[in-house]
């Protein structure tokens, strides 16, 4: 795994239905993300925060809220993430709401095209984020990034990575899903996304789900993890705008992260939807940093 890490803050809630995710990057810094990672012998550069338009808090237009602002933020994210990858570094994007996954993953996909690598994306989330302007009940773009990455969305968003679609649905594994709109569910099936929802995890266990999600990774695979903090059960992580009961427990989430770390393939990371305005004494940020530490090799046992 790459030991040169770059932290990039994207302080916006432009794609969300609740204000507050714009404060996420600072909360993660307050929870000591930089010193924690440095404690594992990693070289960490904090690149500070990106700039973008303010949140005008308008109703949706043509099924999209704040489309122009979302495009601006995602372009900034795309360029920043791509620049770090080009320098041979491992970018960690601190969100911000999950609409930014579009800018981040389109940059990773572009980097993989340029370096002739395969891409595997783990989407850890309570939601499939596979809505379109026709399917969405809200118009909030944080419910659409996966669909946009697969080429289903407004022209200005799907083109950001320089290739449409930016990714193939076959490259994604969604884990922890438990809240999907009716039309979105049909679309997920149509596109044949691989989804390990909570029912699957309940029946088969997190270990089995992760073994399948990580199967066939090889030395030429770039592994990207897009971690929406609402992946976690709200008892563990109350500080998100879209809590859904019945998510992975703290231990299940730890196992998930440790198994990702064991592959040695992690090459980029998003940490999304942390909302300090809804948190309790920064507890969710601390849990998130704890789990990120496991992604970078903190292990509970003295494993030989």
Automatic annotation (TrEMBL):
UniProt xrefs under PROSITE patterns: ARGINASE_1, ARGINASE_2
Enzyme class: hydrolase
Keywords in alphabetical order: Arginine metabolism, Hydrolase, Manganese, Metal-binding
Gene Ontology terms, MF aspect: arginase activity; manganese ion binding
CDD domains in UniProt: Arginase (cd09989)
One annotated Gene Ontology cellular component of this protein: cytoplasm
CC cofactor: Mn(2+)
Signal peptide: none
Functional pathway: Nitrogen metabolism; urea cycle; L-ornithine and urea from L-arginine: step 1/1
Classification via SUPFAM superfamilies: Arginase/deacetylase
Keyword Coiled coil: no
BP term (GO), one: arginine metabolic process
UniProt cofactor note: Binds 2 manganese ions per subunit.
Family: Belongs to the arginase family.
Name of protein: Arginase
Source species of the chain: Piscinibacter terrae
Taxonomic path: Bacteria, Pseudomonadati, Pseudomonadota, Betaproteobacteria, Burkholderiales
């Amino acid at each position: 795994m790459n030991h040169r890490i770059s932290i990039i803050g994207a302080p916006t809630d432009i794609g969300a239905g609740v204000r507050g995710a714009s404060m996420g990057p600072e909360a993660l810094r307050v929870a000591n993300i930089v010193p924690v990672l440095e404690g594992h012998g990693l070289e960490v550069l904090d690149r500070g925060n990106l700039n973008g338009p303010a949140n005008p808090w308008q109703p949706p237009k043509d099924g999209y809220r704040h489309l122009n602002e979302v495009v601006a933020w995602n372009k900034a994210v795309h360029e920043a993430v791509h620049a770090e990858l080009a320098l041979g570094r491992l970018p960690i994007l601190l969100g911000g709401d999950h609409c930014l996954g579009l800018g981040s993953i389109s940059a990773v996909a572009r980097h993989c095209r340029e370096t002739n690598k395969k891409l595997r994306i783990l989407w850890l989330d309570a939601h499939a984020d596979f809505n379109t302007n026709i399917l969405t009940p809200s118009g909030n773009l944080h419910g659409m990034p996966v669909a946009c990455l697969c080429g289903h969305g407004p022209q200005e968003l799907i083109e950001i990575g320089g290739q449409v679609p930016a990714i193939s649905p076959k490259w994604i594994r969604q884990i922890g899903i438990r809240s999907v709109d009716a039309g979105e569910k049909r679309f997920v099936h149509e596109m044949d996304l691989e989804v390990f929802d909570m029912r699957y995890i309940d029946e088969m266990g997190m270990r089995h789900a992760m073994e399948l999600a990580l199967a066939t990774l090889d030395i030429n695979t770039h592994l990207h993890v897009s971690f929406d903090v609402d992946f976690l059960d709200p008892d563990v992580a109350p500080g998100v705008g879209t809590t859904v009961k019945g998510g992975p427990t703290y231990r299940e989430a730890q196992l998930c992260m440790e198994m990702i770390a064991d592959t040695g393939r992690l090459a980029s990371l998003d940490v999304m939807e942390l909302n300090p305005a809804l948190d309790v004494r920064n507890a969710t940020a601390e849990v998130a940093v704890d789990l990120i530490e496991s992604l970078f090799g903190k292990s509970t046992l003295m494993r030989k």
